[in-house]
Every structure is written in C-alpha cells, then in structure tokens.
Fold this protein.
Amino acid sequence: MSAEGVAAATGTGTGAGAAVRLRGAATRRGRAARVVVWALLAGLPLAFLVVFFGLPVGVILGRGFVTDGALDLSGFAEVFGRSRTWRVVGLTLAQASVGTAIAVVLGVPGAYLLYRTAFRGRALLRGLVVVPFVLPTVVVGVAFRSVLAPSGPLGFLGWDESFAGIVAALVFFNYAVVVRTVGAFWADLDPRAEQAARALGAPPWRAFASVTLPALTPAIASAAAVVFLFCATAFGVVLVLGGLRYGTVETEIWVLTTQMLDLRSAAVLSVVQLAVIATVLALAGRARSRRERALGRTGPRREAPRLALRGPLARRADPLAAAVTAVVVVGLLGLPLGTVLVRSLHEPGGGWGLANYANLGTTGGRNALSVTVWDAAATSVRTAVDATVLAVLVGGLVALVVSRRPRGRGARRAVRAFDAAFMLPLGVSAVTVGFGFLVALDGGLGPDLRSSPLLIPVAQAVVATPLVVRTVLPVLRAIDSRLHDAAAVLGAGPWRVLAFVDWPVAARSLGLAVGLAFAVSLGEFGATSFLARPDRPTLPVVIFRLIGRPGAENLGMAFAACVLLGLLTASVMAVAERLRSGAGYGEI
C-alpha cells in the first residue's frame, strides 16, 4: 500500500493533521480569550483601588517617611516623644481590646440562640440585631450620649463622657458581627461530636468546653479580629462620646489635620495605624481560612431544635442564652435608640410634639447650619446612590475574580493577594482615607479633584466595597466548579459562562449587597467629615454640627435628624433583607 493509502486508512494524512492543528489553535484562542477576560475583570477594580485608595494612603505614608525628597524618620521620634501620643495609643488599644472581649462574651450566647435553636420570630430578631451594625456612627454617639447623660435613663451610672460609655457604644456596634459570624459557623457545625460526649457521661458544660468551643475557635477568632478592627478605627462614636479626653488614634488624626494643621504628625499616626491594621487583617485572614477549612469538614446540616425554656425538652443552655440575649437586645440595643426617639419628641419650650421635626426645614437656631436638614438628607441620598453603584460594580468584580479556584500555586497566591488588597479599606481608617484624598488629589499629581461632586461618593465607595465583596463572595464560592468546566466543554465562551452560570447565583446576594453599601454610605462620617463642602453637607455632618452648637432648638433638631437617618438606614436594610432571596451575610 502506498504512503498516501496508509495515511488515508489511518487518518493521519494532511486532513487529520489540519484538524488537529485547528483544534489546537481553537484551544489556544479560547485560553487567550479567558486570560483577556479575567485580566479585564481584575484590572478595572485594581485600577480603582490604586487610584482612590493606594494613592491617597501612599501619599500619607510618604508624608510620614519623606521630607524634601529624602528619607526622614525624625517625625516618628518627635510624635512618639510626646506623652499625649502614648496616651492616645494606649486608649485606642484599651478600648478596642475591652470592646472586643465584651462583644465576644455577649455575642456567643446570641449566636447560639439565633442559629442553634428555632422559635417563632427568630428571623425578625436576626434582622433587628444587625441594624446597629449599619447605623451611622454619629447616630449611635448621640444615642449613647442621651442615655448616659445625667438626665438620661442610665445617668446614675456616671458613664457620661467616660471610657465605659465608649466601650458600651463599641459593643453596641459590633455585637451583630459576632452573632452573625459565629452563628453562621455554628449552624453548620456537626452536633454529633457533642452528642457523643454527652452519651459518654460528660455534663453539658464539659461537652461544650471540650468539644464545641474548640470547634468554634476559628469563627470566634475571625469575629474577634474584625471587631477589634472596627473598635480601633471607630471615629464618630469616640468623637461624640469622648471628645479630646478619651481620644483615639483616629480622632487624633482628625484633630491634628483639621484644627492644628499638623499634617506631618497626622501622617506619622496614620502610618502607625496602618501597620497595626495590616497585622490584624493578616490574623483575620488566617482565622477566616481556618474557618473555611473547618466548614469543609462539617457534617450534614440539621434542623435546629425548638427553643425549650421549660419542660422535659429544656436544655440548660437555652434559658441562659435567652436571658443574656434579652438583656443585650433590650438594654444595650433598644434603650439608646428608644431614648433618641423620645428626646426627638420633646419640644424646646417644654411639652411634647413634632416641633423638632418641623424645624428640620430650617437652618437651626442662630443659623447654625448653611442648609436645611432636608437638603442635607437629599444630598446624603444622592451621594449614597452614586457610592452604591460604584461599590457594587467594583466589589462584584472583585468577588467574581476571588471566587475562582486556579490550579497553579502561583495563581492561587495571586488570587489571595488580590482579595487581601481589597480588604485593606475595611480596616484602614476612613479618616485616613479622607485625609489622603485631601493631600493626594490637590492637583499635584493630576487634576484638582477636591471640588468635584464625585469625590465623596468615591470615598464612600472605597469604604463600602469590602462589605460588598464579603457579601457576594460566599455565594459565588458555593458554585460547583464543575459547572464552569462543563460549560466550557460545551463550547461556552467566558462571557457566556459568566452570564448563565455565575450571574443567576450572584443575583441572589445582590439585594443584600446593595442594601449594605447604601446603608454604610448613607451614614459614613469619617472620610466625609474631611471632604464635605459647607454648602453640600451630608446628614451625618449636619447632625455633628447641630450637637456642637448651643441651644435646645439645635439639640432637638439633632435628635430628630438622628431618627430620620436611623429610619432611612433601617428601611434600606429591611428592603435588602426581603430582596436577598436566601443569601446570608457572608463573612461580615
């Protein structure tokens, strides 16, 4: 048989070779297309992070380390040679440590009650518990100030303008973080190990301490790290409740920048804060990885047993968890918010009515404001809408990229680094971000953007993006990677895979992501306090100005404005809860 006949019989002729080459070329083109698509998806949010976070923070770092183009560390010696600096750093660490410890101690019983037992109204209680987390810091500061004032319900404690009052407000904020993080993990924990310990004769407390508590350690550590970050970078609460007496690094940066015009000292403190935050973020990331690995080894999810306070089915832990949670919800969460509502109805001239709400259409006593509260509310809503669109777009792209599970070790490390980079704004002070915007975007490195109306939405989007990522990411990670492989084998291109596999699943968490981003942007105060123009203040800025002005009329307007802002925030979160279609709060 001739060579041509052998080639034809065996299929190795020029036609078959051409087909093989065509398939190889098609595979290479598909691989190149996927690389281009993922490069675009990663490059757009990365450019946003570099310009609007990396550049401002980098300029702050430069102010702390560089003088006249040369490395100069004398600013550190000067700042840390002041006794006030050590006092501020000590107060920051003390408030964050004590606040974290109390939040964990109170949050674990709440996590058990809301995620390990079933009772009527549990879903509503879960929603109420998370409201304080998204409330504006200024509202919380005013609420606790009214509760702890000598004339307030808890004035007898003597906690007005005290360390204890600030810690109570920090716990108020972060209680939901512990409950959500530990509770979601606890709900997926296999109960059979603890049941086996009980069957072998261990009493309930010993079975919990020796079996369940060690299993919960990754979730508790992760929650504690995040709570410490939030406590250490709290701004509005500390500024309203503690002032200069109980100032933290966060408030000290604000004072040095806005009142003393000492940018170099503020930059040094920002550098120190960034170093501490980077360390805590690394610990939080490690704890989160341990939690994810532990969840991968859990057993099948079981229906939570009914809450039993009495009778033969009663468990000893149930009454204790119910009692602790009731005290926290009523005393710590409900009392401050209820006091603000009552004070808003107390008219300046005495008696009760809606005079304070009617005054929201004015500029306050002695023209304390440059615009009315309603104008500021409209500005806040417009700004929050713009910030939400940016945060959801950027955060959604980040979550999509991070949700991938590449096979190569280098690619996996790159994805982890990409995720960690976008978590930095979660811990970096909003005050530092606002300060950096003022310094970096003054036209020295490009156009002067400080007067742009988009500056505040961009700053708020930087702060809200990590929350969007942590909300959407767990939903995307739940997609079986084999679906992507199957779609690719069937000939679907990268865009079709995204449209028909990822998007339908990601849409489940979109309502919650939008709600969180909008609520956080609506109440953001740290960066906005630097960037808001006098003729276009946001509602939190107006509230802070009102409580700093003398007169019962201004104070009453501040309470009414707090109620307005709180209702807006709670309404947004209520709508987000209804739109979330079963998506959880993920990794807040």
Remarks:
- The chain has a mean pLDDT of 78.
